[in-house]
């Protein structure tokens, strides 16, 4: 149990490893579901194609949507896309990078399902059995004498071993269609692998600087959201703790003061510890001690996030901790939009008439 908890904490702290693990589990689940799935072709001309193609398309679409649902970055992407601009502008390249990253991971399980289905060939046989040219498999005079409707009904029964009487035709047709299905499966795997190679290898070679920039800021958006949630949880915990303490102090103020007076000479060290805890809780409140103020902070965070330009606090005796917003560019050697005062040197100029 402890090992499982440590593994879960590691995956939770490392978002990329966690999502790769989820994609791997989904890929294995898709292959396992197909092996456990009972394939039953209806063997009717009206439904064979719909059933075979539906089995090839509908489950991959479900796995693709499930990949988006299980990816935590979807909410980050939607929040970044719909948020007001405010003080921080939006970068479309970051949104594109996040969307492409989510899409790539979500396509793994559908690709595995399609590959396994094509390699097996049952759905392909069910969908295209009525399109076979039966003359390729031998000279069968009884088939030529059939009408088109009866011939389609006969061909539709090829995937069903119990319903088709002529086993030689069924075996030959099944092998023929399964060979085509497997060829399509290998072509599909080759295309997916080649596309993944292009995405993973060639794109960073041409736009490495832009790729690193978008990757960095996409990670920043995700980490910032997590840190904001953690800060809100810490603030809510401290706010609730102090609120409950003040409630009990107001209800039983006299009894608590009397009890504290009797044991004051015994528990001086305990009182110091309590004061330290209270001071730490007060620090976690960050000066926000009212519901309306907290609502305003949360609303401002959504409507106008702070600009991504950190400012250094100037702890001078005159301004006593004012932010560098009043002294723009102090790091670069500017203060209040001007250069620092430099000691002027006096120059004496002498003119000679000689």
Automatic annotation (TrEMBL):
Topology in membrane: Multi-pass membrane protein
BP term (GO), one: ATP export
InterPro entries: CALHM (IPR029569)
Signal peptide: none
GO CC terms of this entry: plasma membrane
Major localization class: membrane
GO MF annotations, alphabetized: monoatomic cation channel activity
Transmembrane feature ranges: 21-37, 49-74, 180-199
Keywords assigned by UniProt, alphabetized: Ion channel, Ion transport, Membrane, Transmembrane, Transmembrane helix, Transport
Cellular localization per UniProt: Membrane
Chain residue ranges for the region called Disordered: 262-281
Protein family: Belongs to the CALHM family.
Protein name: Calcium homeostasis modulator 1
